[in-house]
Design goal:
By secondary structure, the protein is of the alpha/beta class. The chain has one domain: 3-Layer(aba) Sandwich (Rossmann fold). The protein has 10 helices and 5 strands. Strands 3-2-1-4-5 form a 5-stranded parallel beta sheet. Helix 3 runs antiparallel to helix 6 and helix 8 runs parallel beside helix 10. The longest helix is centred in the middle third of the chain and has 13 residues. The radius of gyration is 15 Å and the shape is globular. The relative contact order is 0.17.
Length: 165
């Protein structure tokens, strides 16, 4: 097993929303020993009306909600939204090395500026297939796209290649 999946992870809204679109919002809870959601992300997911709201609320009950105490890094608040900023801040506060982020800029900053391991929704699907939690990645990616979740063609191709599909 990939050692990234052996420790708790801090999760942003995007991966949970994307997975909820295909009724797999539970997936991070099965792949990681603990999923931590910053308070700002928790509120963001529950405040917005969406067809996935009840599924997300149910999943959030099984996560650890974290209120960030550290002063936000100026780079983060200038470049990223509040949820992405708090995901990185929470990981640093808690001494964790892995975050779940989908937005390209946030992924780059988390990785290059803070040395965090970054996983995204598509990568979770590949790992889920490896573990036998889902049969195939392609229909899940297609379902997310049909549900309005943006996944670039290069990312889709790379994930399908990684999943041998």
């Amino acid at each position: 097993m990939n050692p990234i999946f052996e420790a708790p992870v801090v999760c942003n809204a995007g991966p949970l929303i994307g997975l909820a679109r295909i009724n797999l919002a539970w997936l991070p809870l099965r792949l990681f020993p603990q999923v931590i959601v910053p308070e700002t992300v928790h509120l963001e997911l529950l405040v917005k009306e969406s067809p996935d709201r009840s599924q997300l609320a149910e999943i959030l009950e099984q996560t650890r909600i974290h209120k960030c105490l550290r002063k936000t890094d100026a780079l983060l608040s200038a470049e990223l939204d509040a949820g992405e900023t708090d995901v990185i801040t929470a990981a640093l506060e808690l001494g964790l090395s892995c975050v779940l982020l989908d937005e390209k800029k946030a992924r780059r900053i988390a990785s290059l500026a803070y040395g965090l391991h970054v996983k995204g929704t598509a990568g979770l699907l590949v790992e889920a297939k490896r573990r036998g939690l889902i049969a195939a990645v392609r229909p899940q990616l297609e379902g997310m796209i049909r549900g309005g979740y943006f996944l670039g063609p290069n990312l889709v191709a790379a994930c399908l290649d990684a999943a041998n599909e």
